[in-house]
Design brief:
The protein has about 160 residues and is of the alpha+beta class. The chain is built from six helices and four strands; from the N terminus they run αβααβαααββ.
């Protein structure tokens, strides 16, 4: 049996700054707020948000028999270029200085699964990085990683928004 401590330790070893675990239960109240938000067309042109609402708020529909959701995060490293000045070097947002985070995060999740021996143990798992309808922020809060700020983003005490 894997402990939460083992999972969090491996998450940090592969490079995640944050890791928390929450039960895989239907998020009914969050779903209700989301459906009301959609009813007011607050998603603008993001029509994809209207699809798979049931899966977004119930992890057991994404992974059959899911008992837990492991939520991991990586803080922006805030390594900006020197900015404008005599050298005329443009400022670049920190996320743009790295490889595509989708690929990086998926690779880190695969490393976690390998190090934890999930396949050998017969544990069903899936890793997502913007590749499935998942209520990431709600799950992150439930996993104890932070709170939703006025900017509607997760605010982690150690790292900010």
């Amino acid at each position: 049996m894997l402990s939460a401590r083992d999972i969090k330790e491996v998450a940090h070893e592969v490079g995640f700054d944050l890791c928390g675990i929450t039960p895989a239960v239907a998020l009914d109240s969050a779903r209700g707020r989301f459906e009301e938000w959609l009813a007011h067309a607050r998603n603008g042109s993001l029509d994809y948000l209207e699809r798979n609402v049931d899966k977004r708020f119930d992890a057991s529909l994404l992974v059959d028999g899911a008992e837990s959701v492991v939520v991991c995060g990586v803080a922006y490293k805030n390594e900006f270029s020197d900015g404008y000045g005599d050298s005329a070097t443009p400022r670049v947002a920190s996320y743009a200085l790295y490889e595509d985070y989708h690929d990086t995060i998926r690779g880190m999740l695969r490393q976690m699964a390998q190090r934890l021996g999930l396949i050998e143990r017969g544990v069903m798992w899936r890793g997502f990085s913007d590749s499935a309808p998942v209520a990431e922020k709600t799950l992150a809060v439930r996993a104890g990683l932070g709170a939703i700020g006025r900017n509607s983003l997760l605010i982690a005490p150690e790292y900010g928004s």
